[in-house]
Design goal:
14 helices; transferase (chains A, B); homodimer; zinc (chains A, B); tRNA processing (chains A, B); metal-binding (chains A, B); about 20% strand; 2 domains; glycosyltransferase (chains A, B)
């Protein structure tokens, strides 16, 4: 399924074959939490900005509209009208970050819906069933995302349970993929490495899950409060214990700099809400750093957000117009910023792939970081 | 400038030639109050849904971003990136409906900005200057929009002042159109007929302003609280006193039924916030009546909002998906509804033009009203 095309140092350039098409890696997945990109961006728009993979959230779709509704409507691809790959997370992270009162047991997690307070149970089997109903291309294993900081003892117990949950996920997905009314019978499963900032726990866990021959492996529980240096250190120490011939996914990360550092350490897949969230706050990513479009200096600026940018927004509208839309609280301004920012991330990944292919990733990374550090 | 192609009863089918292209009438102008259609719809989207004329508000753009800013940026067409006709209202209606404490004097109106409470003065000359700065295709004369109900005495005094203001508007626009740095030196001016529901005042005023040889004539101060029957009656009695060889514009109206009734009485131009406002409240216009997309019956409905509709939304997305977006409070749902509703209005005007051309407007109107009355 994954073909390693070339390496430049530890940086990997690969191709991941799925039933919904080939993903060129490294890749940044565009986050559409509730089956929609926030900021009024449609799947038709995603087709124009180089999006390869859309990511939706199992927990959100389970509570609304309900995964059974999505299944009856033919699965997430048909529901959203998106024919390329979709990755669904397992719901684990949201259960631990969003949901109300929760109890972790060996069988799974009891918690309250953040929408209506209703009591819900989710364990490995439920997460796999929901993701099978959603019929995503890639499902994520159900794990515990441990708090940061956590004691060594808590972490070890949590990781051991996550391993036992992974075994149950594998078994359940195999069963689901063989059922006659399963929409995507070739759904793939990525396991998730945990262990916080305890490198030895991470490494042992990576070795353990690597034996399970999954379709891909993720690093979870990072970017949850530790420093960037701690995160880079953990990635550097753990990735060598994950299979080279499988994709590696760093969950929920991050800034352009974070992505460049992680690619250098062998990561293939990324996702993050930054481009859409920052867009909704009036910030645009550019090769000269982040711009705050609300700034008065753009009042009469008729240039595009980024000169030379090929995104549909920069090809048409000016800084002055976008600033006005933001000031006037017109939704259109947010849509424009989110569109540009997602394009910026997708385009950066394309540049990264090109740089690795040409074995000049280090030079590319240096130049990109220096450019972004200039400030606007 | 206006060419009457044919008539079907009183209904007019015309062509209005402007520096920004030809407008086929009857026409519905799409309202982009603050130089943006509410609901994250861009001018690029308008190109795809049959929009002929965009309408922006002088008062809103004067307070933000400021008409001088728009002028420095090359005018509203360049600012919004819209090359077809733009009509700007005079600011009068907003001064009387939105602004704080106001004082009406012979010279104009003193009022407070609804944004920052700042004291502003606007009279006929100021309104013309602002609209000249915005460089719209068609400017509206500065009038008083009298309260409803108003006494006969108040109304007569108000209408007389509106006539004197119109004379000042004509003079000022002539001056502005001759200035070397005016962006649109061919800016056109529409006068506004007032008189509330006093038919005789309306008629006298219509006769008076018809002598002034303006580019078009509007009926203002309707749909402000009087019944539909009163409004239709006033239109029917007044339009015959406005020039047949000029376009007639019914300001701020209305529902599809209102438009059909007014077209039958000789109106050419319309504008209304209903399609975008109702869209933002989850309502879609269809040929079978209005749909509330939040209704539970659409939860599993994979049909488009309107079967056979050629709008970009109905061509792609289902009722079930749009309902989910609305329930999840995703902006994308609002964008889809506004897009569809504007398309519905624009398409209805196309049908109206076709029906008048083929002298079957009455049959068309009857069938359309019956269809919409079915309910969904």
């Amino acid at each position: 399924m994954y073909r390693l095309i070339t390496q430049d140092g530890q940086a990997k350039r690969g191709e991941f074959h799925t039933v919904h098409g080939v993903i060129q890696t490294p890749v940044f997945m565009n986050v559409g939490t509730a089956a929609a990109i926030k900021g009024a961006v449609s799947t038709m728009d995603l087709q124009k900005i180089g999006t390869q993979v859309e990511l939706s959230n199992t927990y959100h779709l389970h509570v609304r509209p309900g995964d059974k509704v999505v299944k009856q409507l033919g699965g997430l691809h048909k529901f959203m009208v998106w024919d390329k790959p979709i990755l669904t997370d397992s719901g684990g992270f949201q259960v631990f970050s969003l949901a109300g009162l929760r109890k972790i047991k060996e069988e799974g997690v009891y918690f309250q819906s953040h929408i209506d307070g209703r009591r819900i149970f989710m364990g490995p089997e439920e997460s796999m069933q929901i993701q099978s109903n959603l019929a995503s291309t890639i499902a994520m294993a159900f794990d515990e995302c441990p708090p940061h900081p956590a004691t060594r003892e808590y972490m070890q117990n949590s990781v051991d349970r996550t391993t036992r949950w992974l075994e149950r996920c594998i078994k359940e997905m195999k069963r689901l993929n063989e059922l006659p009314d399963t929409i995507n019978k070739k759904q793939m499963l990525f396991g998730i490495n945990q262990g916080g900032t305890f490198a030895d726990i991470r490494i042992e866990h990576a070795k353990r899950i690597s034996e399970m021959d999954l379709d891909g492996y993720a690093l979870g529980g990072l970017a949850v409060g530790e420093s960037h240096e701690e995160m880079y250190d953990i990635i550097e120490k753990t990735v060598p214990y994950l299979p080279l011939e499988k994709p590696t996914y760093l969950m929920g990360v991050g800034t352009p700099a974070n992505i460049l550092e992680a690619v250098e350490r062998g990561v293939d897949f990324f996702d993050c809400v930054y481009p859409s969230r920052n867009g909704r706050h009036g910030h645009a990513y550019t090769n000269h750093g982040k711009m705050n479009l609300l700034n008065a200096r753009y009042e009469l600026d008729d240039r595009p957000m980024e000169e030379g940018c090929q995104c549909p927004v920069c090809q048409t509208y000016s800084r002055a117009y976008i600033r006005h839309l933001l000031k006037a609280k017109e939704m259109l301004g947010l849509r424009m910023l989110v569109t540009h920012n997602l394009y910026f991330y997708n385009k950066m990944m394309e540049e990264i792939r090109d740089a690795i292919e040409h074995h000049r990733f280090k030079e590319y990374k240096k130049a990109k970081l220096e450019g972004m550090a200039q400030g606007e």
